[in-house]
Write a structure and sequence with these properties.
Blueprint: H1 3-34, E1 41-44, E2 52-59, E3 62-67, E4 70-71, H2 74-80, H3 83-89, E5 96-97, E6 100-103, E7 109-112, E8 120-123, H4 124-133, E9 137-139
Parallel strand pairs: 1-9
Antiparallel strand pairs: 1-2, 2-3, 3-6, 4-5, 7-8
């Protein structure tokens, strides 16, 4: 096998492992919903509506993060996404973005969004700090409309 073929096989193995871990995260979150398990931490927007931007659960398999779906205004949506991205990651092919569920070891930080705010970045360390301190709710930083 050539070095290029070896590299391709290694990349395929990494992607397959990532996909399996993502499937595990979604299945665990679905199971938690059926059992009505409360999150250890909720991340909300600073708006008076206090939208839920993410839920964080401590599990035996790792820290699980669930970000609910959201809808953007047409102008913001066009400015912040591509046609290909919308086709792949929205429910309606346009503005209703799918929820995301994953483990914290699958990300470096969180890009938080809700129906009226987009592009809020929260460092993973902020979640770890909140969980360590026993805090059950934090607010998203640096919100722009």
């Amino acid at each position: 096998m050539t070095p290029e073929e070896t590299a391709i096989e290694q990349l395929r193995a990494i992607i397959t492992a990532h996909d399996k871990r993502s499937e595990q995260a979604r299945a665990m979150h679905d199971d938690m919903g059926e059992r009505k398990r409360r999150p250890n931490l909720v991340i909300r927007c600073n708006d008076r509506r206090r939208c839920k931007m993410a839920e964080v659960f401590i599990t035996a398999s790792g820290v699980l993060i669930h970000q609910p779906g959201y809808k953007l205004s047409p102008a913001v949506n066009l400015d912040h996404s591509s046609e290909e991205g919308r086709a792949k990651n929205t429910l309606d092919g346009e503005r209703r973005w799918k929820s995301q569920t994953y483990f914290s070891d699958q990300c470096l930080n969180l890009s938080l969004n809700c129906d009226h705010y987009t592009g809020n970045v929260l460092e993973l360390q902020a979640i770890k700090d909140a969980l360590t301190a026993g805090v059950n709710e934090i607010y998203s930083p640096n919100q722009e409309q």
